[in-house]
Design a protein that fits this description.
The complex is a heterodimer of chains A (206) and B (474). Chain A has 206 residues and is mainly alpha-helical. Chain A is 31% helix and 7% strand. Chain A has a single domain, classed as Cytochrome c-like domain (Cytochrome Bc1 Complex, Chain D, domain 2, Orthogonal Bundle). The two termini of chain B are 36 Å apart. Classes of the chains: A mainly alpha (206), B mainly alpha (474). At the A-B interface, α1 of A face α3, α5, α6, α7 and α8 of B.
């Protein structure tokens, strides 16, 4: 243990082998993955997310949502995600092939969002939840993302939020809270998060 | 900036000391002053910033309306906190301790100290720039690789400008013996550049599709801790325990085995953070195996460390030894927690819960930071030829560190446990335990304030008169 060259060689070998083993082999194994038909003649899935949702992903990233929300449903043998209703089938690698940044996440202070688009189908609900999570759940510990909303003259506001009566942040008379561009993109992104399709290796239960 | 100017003053004040009568060891120490002081000052600065941000994030979990500034909402504060803890405090302090240990044990003077100083300045400038971008929301969203892609190669170059001198010191050493601390430092300074470059390449330069990114990120995150920070921390412990107890390390012949097991297993154990994720099953299995097998080198380290400590004469312990001993216990607990969380059933229950955060705090605060503090408390007086101005502040720092770390680990660990046991109706419990975690983090911050105040006073002191008794060591 007194040769610089030996110790360095040992280290580089060990690091190189682990990188090759973990990253390069899975690259080789998965590079062929692409959207596929679950059954003959079916659509190719997963499908590309709409443009607004792609922009919304940047908002999701920038707001640090990933610190509280994962996007992966584990198989029933490795956690109770499916029992909790986070998804109807486990996530598989193919679900992510079209994503340029994969946000599996590592911490769940809130629910998993891989399939949130099938649970939460109302833009209005999502906006209210982001504006003030305590509207839906008084005990929520989640920060409010009010900076994604702005006050506008009520007459001109098309998609004003309808806050519950007496809400502490209720808009002053004549004005209304409306989602900013970023909030609209973010909600489009959340709506696009869906595992509502089968793939050859993971079928939705009938 | 006052830190920089006082560092410059210290450097300047050291000029007249470069005299032959100081003895080899003192000259080695003296030659390292510029690099070690720049690294130490940045480390201290980032430590405070990161502790404060960690507190800001934690407070929001039980006082949800507290922070309204977008730049400091929970997610962003967490990004900044973890980047500053990893790349700010831990990396700078690890480089300072690693450089010093490598030169001191090899009895090699550092030449061209300005290269290392420039490297350190570059590293910290890049970090500061990256943090500004994180404040604006520019994270990549990948744990441990949050900083913008542009920083990657530049920070590796800066790291090499500092860290490679440890390898140079190893190659040019004047001693027949090689100590465990030396291999560990070598492993650390060689591993980080490889880890960081390969991960950046796989994520940014040749972007890999799909879940491969998550695999690379897990490999990098675990390697950063296991192959860069942990080896330096272990080096500090290997160095200080025999030095400060006057006893040789017990079972020293086992240390070589432990070293090689440690570096090979940590390179694979990252995959244990992906159990249940949509990645190939064999990758998950290799992670499980590696993480559990890490118990073997941990047991050897326990024989080495705890075995030696048990044999050491009782009596007052130097501050460095207390920190080093606590770090040795923290290390063992961390590997135990890692192994438990990496079993299939442990992961199924506890993955994604606060128990994982507790495990991270145990690793970074309960082990790495304590060992780095041990090193800094030992080396800074030698490098600056001054005593720590306040013994009381050192003691306060020690107890506040232990209290704060234990409190945060226990509070978050309990919360994770409850969440796994009964996920519904957790709101009240969660609020109470998150509040307990915040109090603990505030205690930790207070402790670090004691450290930084002491450090600032040390840098402001006049250098010990030249004729004064040299610090006791060979």
């Amino acid at each position: 243990m007194n040769k610089l060259s030996l110790i360095s060689a040992g280290l580089f070998l060990s690091l190189g082998l682990s990188f090759a083993g973990l990253a390069l082999t899975s690259q080789a194994q998965q590079s062929g993955l692409a959207p596929a038909q679950a059954e003959e003649g079916g659509p190719l899935l997963p499908a590309l997310a709409p443009g607004l949702a792609v922009l919304g992903k940047d908002v999701y990233l920038a707001q640090g949502c990933v610190h509280c929300h994962t996007q992966q449903v584990r198989p029933a043998s490795q956690g109770n995600d499916i029992a909790k209703g986070y998804g109807k089938r486990p996530s598989v690698a193919r679900d992510y092939v079209l994503q340029d940044r994969v946000l599996l996440g590592a911490s769940r202070l809130g629910p998993d969002l891989a399939d949130v688009g099938t649970r939460r189908t109302s833009d209005e609900w999502l906006h209210l939840h982001l504006f003030d999570p305590r509207i839906g759940d008084a005990a929520s510990s989640k920060p409010a993302f009010r900076h994604l909303y702005e006050l506008r003259p009520a007459a001109a506001a098309k998609s004003a939020l309808s806050l519950p009566a007496g809400h502490a942040a209720a808009a002053p008379a004549g004005q209304a809270w409306v989602p900013t561009e970023r909030a609209i993109q973010l909600v489009a992104y959340l709506r696009s998060l869906r595992i509502d399709y089968s793939t050859p290796e993971a079928k939705l239960p009938e | 900036m006052s830190t920089v100017s006082s560092v410059q003053q210290v450097i300047r004040r050291h000029e007249p000391l470069a005299e032959p009568n100081l003895g080899r060891v003192a000259q080695v120490d003296h030659s390292l002053a510029p690099a070690v002081l720049v690294l130490g000052a940045f480390a201290a600065l980032w430590l405070l910033a990161s502790s404060l941000l960690g507190l800001v994030a934690s407070l929001q979990l039980h006082l949800p309306g507290l922070v309204t500034a977008e730049a400091l909402t929970y997610g962003r504060a967490r990004d900044l906190q973890s980047v500053l803890l990893n790349y700010g405090w831990s990396a700078n302090a690890a480089l300072a301790v690693g450089l010093w240990v490598a030169h001191r044990l090899g009895r090699v003077e550092s030449r061209h100290a300005w290269v290392a100083v420039l490297g350190a300045l570059g590293w910290n400038l890049a970090l500061a720039w990256g943090c500004l971008s994180l404040l604006g929301g520019g994270t990549t969203g990948l744990p441990s690789l949050e900083l913008p892609r542009e920083t990657g190669p530049f920070m590796v170059a800066c790291f090499l400008a500092v860290g490679l001198w440890a390898a140079v010191a190893f190659g040019r050493r004047h001693t027949p013996h090689v100590f465990a601390a030396q291999w560990h430092v070598l492993a650390a300074v060689l591993s980080f550049p490889v880890l960081h470059l390969l991960a950046h390449a796989a994520i940014h330069a040749y972007p890999s599709d799909g879940v491969l990114q998550a695999i690379v990120a897990a490999w990098h995150a675990h390697g950063f801790l296991g192959l860069f920070l942990a080896p330096v921390a272990l080096a500090a412990i290997y160095y200080l325990i025999p030095k400060e107890t006057g006893r040789p390390i017990r079972g020293y012949y086992l240390a070589t085995v432990a070293f090689w097991l440690f570096v090979t297993l940590h390179a694979w154990a990252g995959a244990a953070h992906l159990i249940g994720s949509p990645v190939p099953a064999w990758i998950q299995s290799s992670g499980v195996v590696a993480a559990i097998m890490l118990l073997v080198p941990a047991i050897i380290a326990a024989i080495n460390f705890q075995g030696t400590l048990l044999q050491a004469p009782r009596g007052t312990r130097s501050p460095s030894l207390r920190f080093a001993a606590a770090a040795a216990h923290g290390f063992l607990l961390w590997i135990l927690a890692l192994a438990l969380m990496s079993t299939r059933s442990g992961s199924a229950r506890f993955r994604f819960t606060e128990l994982e955060q507790a495990q991270g705090i145990l690793a970074l605060h309960g082990f790495v930071a304590l060992a780095l503090f041990a090193g800094l408390y030992y080396l800074l007086p030698r490098v600056t030829r001054r005593e720590w101005p306040s013994k009381g502040l050192v003691a306060a720092h020690y107890w506040l560190c232990l209290l704060g770390t234990a409190g945060a680990v226990l509070a978050l660990g309990a919360l994770g446990w409850f969440r796994a046991a009964a996920p519904s109706d957790l709101a009240e419990t969660a609020r109470a335990l998150n509040a307990a975690a915040s109090v603990s983090l505030a205690i930790l911050l207070l402790g670090h304030l004691a450290f930084v105040a002491n450090l600032a006073a040390l840098l402001a002191l006049p250098t010990r008169a030249r004729g004064a008794a040299p610090l006791s060591d060979r």
